[in-house]
Amino acid sequence: MAPTPDDTFDVVVLGAGSGGYAAALRAAQLGLTVALVEEGKVGGTCLHSGCIPTKALLHAAELADGAREGARFGVRSTFEGIDMAAVAAYKDGVVAGLFKGLEGLVSSRGITVVRGHGRLVGPDTVEVRAAHGAEAPARLVGRHVVVATGSFPRTLPGLEIGGRVVTSEQALRLDTVPRSVIVLGGGVIGVEFASVWRSFGAEVHVVEALDHLVPAEDDALSKALERAFRKRGIRFTLGDRFEKVAEDDSGVHVRLASGATLDADLLLVAVGRGPRTAGIGLEEQGVTLDRGFVVVDERLHTGVGNVWAVGDVVPGLQLAHRGFAQGIAVAERIAGLTPAPLDEATVPRVTYSDPEVASVGLTERAAVEQHGADGVETLEYNLAGNGRSKILGTQGFVKLVRRKDGPVLGVHMIGARVGELVGEAQLVVSWDAYPEDVAALVHAHPTQNEALGEAHLALAGKPLHAHN
Question: Which one of 299, 339, 347, 412 is CB 3.0 to 4.6 Å from 218, fit for a cystine?
Answer without folding.
Answer: 412
